[in-house]
## 1
Amino acid sequence: MIELADARRTLLAACPSIAPVALPVARADRCVIVADVVATHAVPPFDNTSVDGYAVQAADTVTATQDQPVHLDVLGSVLAGSVADRPVEPGRTWKVMTGAPLPAGADAVVMVERTSARAGSQLGAAGDQVAILAPARSGAGIRRAGSDVRTGETVLAAGTVLRPAHLGVLGSVGAREVLVYRRLRVGVLVTGDELVTDGGELRPGQIHESNRAMLMALLVRANCEPMDLGVASDDVADLEQRLRHAMAACDVIVTSGGVSMGDSDPVKAVLERMGRLNWMQVAIRPAKPFAFGVLDGPSAPVLVLGLPGNPVSSLVSFELIARPALRHMMGHVEPYGPSVLAIADEQLGRPLADGRTAFLRVLSRIGPDGRVHVRPVTGQDSHQLSASASADALAEVPDDRTVQAGEDVLVYPLS
Ligand SMILES: Nc1nc2c(c(=O)[nH]1)N[C@H]1C(S)=C(S)[C@@H](COP(=O)(O)OP(=O)(O)OC[C@H]3O[C@@H](n4cnc5c(N)ncnc54)[C@H](O)[C@@H]3O)O[C@H]1N2
Ligand code: MOO
């Protein structure tokens, strides 16, 4: 058996690289950017007002009180998107709306609530007078040019995993497209003669298929574009035909089933004929068997990831081995998910010492101490998917020990 860390290292080293692509900003969420993004202009591009109010010279307002307001002549109104056509001079003011350019000559904006003109009032035409009820500090109510982003500043560094606010930042500096590692197109092929996909009556020996929808959803959550390759029967010709079709359309093919020691595993037979595959026995429970290889696709190399068929094994294999490889190909500097040091609320035992690190499915909660607490779900066998579905994390329990209630344990949130 091979340790998980070694299996992951070997796999990551074998992953083909993917050419970057320029995506419209609105379609780039969760992608990793390839190069630094440098602002070609300042944000905001000009001094502007942060409130609805009156742009003034602060010196004019020093004596203003509720009882003895300062009266200023209104030059007109400036809306966001328009510009004042003359400066503010002593005794004068422009009514300004949030985001409007600060008129020249003004050094403060008095909120409309601190004037005799209440919010929503129409007062703001040239010739009106407004009463200022409180003094304004110089600089109040003003957002300076470049106070968010300076010209020439690196707003996003290469390697950033884009989140919604980053897309906003790209918009704010005028970027329409961004160079990213693109989402991988990943074909999902489940295998097994016993699998029924149409929800119909089960004949003796048959079971309903469960892994395809699960793996496709896991891929979406990993920011990939899954492609359903259907269910291959244990017929070699059918399988080969499906795989060849997939190689033309996909960057990666994920298979489920047929990677253990079974006599008639067609996946093994076909993949071995198409390229060199690495068959691994990873020292983890579940998800021991795993296969991978790089096939010569018609236009580019195609990575094949062979997950075990047992549904829980498939899930755990994806989380611990396949997803890091996909993330690596999509430019993630940190391909592995986050871990949390949690407290075991119950004993996290293992049925037998078999040289494999157990990844028990656990349910987490935040305790009154503010820390993450976990307890195992009931049903830890690799066919007991319904039990695992109620878990939200994997707890790592080394082969040679049991984690006692109250002890710390490393956990990995599930997708
Ligand atoms: N002699 C040995 N036998 C097994 C070993 C071993 O080391 N020596 N390893 C076991 C482990 S661990 C696992 S995990 C499984 C992996 O088996 P395969 O990847 O070859 O998967 P299959 O044999 O095709 O299926 C296993 C099991 O899962 C069911 N299955 C498969 N695909 C689906 C699906 N899409 N939906 C629902 N259920 C599925 C299948 O019917 C089998 O019951 O091997 C052990 N054996
Ligand atoms: O690795 Mo298997 O997943 O133990 O059942």
## 2
Amino acid sequence: MSEQELKALRVRIDSLDEKVLELISERARCAQEVARVKLASLAEGEVPVFYRPEREAQVLKRVMERNKGPLGNEEMARLFREIMSSCLALEQPLKVAYLGPEGTFTQAAAMKHFGHAVISKPMAAIDEVFREVAAGAVNFGVVPVENSTEGAVNHTLDSFLEHDMVICGEVELRIHHHLLVGENTKTDSISRIYSHAQSLAQCRKWLDAHYPNVERVAVSSNAEAAKRVKGEWNSAAIAGDMAAGLYGLTRLAEKIEDRPDNSTRFLMIGNQEVPPTGDDKTSIIVSMSNKPGALHELLVPFHDNGIDLTRIETRPSRSGKWTYVFFIDFVGHHRDPLVKGVLEKISQEAVALKVLGSYPKAVL
Ligand SMILES: C=C(O[C@@H]1C=C(C(=O)O)C=C[C@H]1O)C(=O)O
């Protein structure tokens, strides 16, 4: 390509950037107008709701449907995710608590869902994320709920039994683990590998094959593992890209998770009910009396109405020995007439039924 051609293309890019800049600014001014209208239409004593997850899901879906390339749908939606995040911050900067410290996959999930224009607050434990939301110190919390290799995150499920929370969104993240070492690590004398218990389990086969005799130490998070390794010469950590970058560690081995499709699903928790988008999921907790056929009775109404269950998990109820609660996710919104009917039917048979929330299916 000649210098001349290159120059002409750059002139074209500069002029396109000016248009993109003006259009983004116009969009941001529109969002400010939306905020003005929302405030003006408030009833006496009503609190304004600036963040609308159902609307954001629709915006992203539209972008993906209309995208003609060459950028892929996910890439284009990611760019619009950030534009929306900045526009919303003009209306109201969202405060989001997540399972920290900085550099965890939960932080990556929070950024994927809310974009980077939020004020994020790392918490030391899942239960603290719940408490921070309950106390009103933040607008939303982000917690892991299940992993495709290792199953349920029990701390999260148990926290739902203790706190009244509304689930207002979900996000899925592909989880790649690396074996990370610090500047001072003697790589031939590693005697300890730190990581979160879930991550150690997700890399069990790889560890058995490569470091069979090295001690595996479970710590509170992958980022915490990375932080410890920085100051030690005989240890390594299993963590992801964010933690590696944050703590300046290098990758001794990449993508060491046993399953290449290893993914984690995260939930956004808050106090805000989300209206239907037409493509939603609902999460409920149900406890049934301890009698034969109870689980069958619980599942029949879903089957009879053709409602798709996406997950069912059992946990001890914590209110009696050998009594259980079921965590169920299914497709649909609790305001859909069909779903309403199913929930009514279940509540007639159940000891207790709690709708944790209906929320748009993950778009990204
Ligand atoms: C602009 C609005 O407020 C927020 C910002 C949005 C955006 O930038 O597109 C979408 C939904 C809201 O979270 C709105 O409610 O439409």
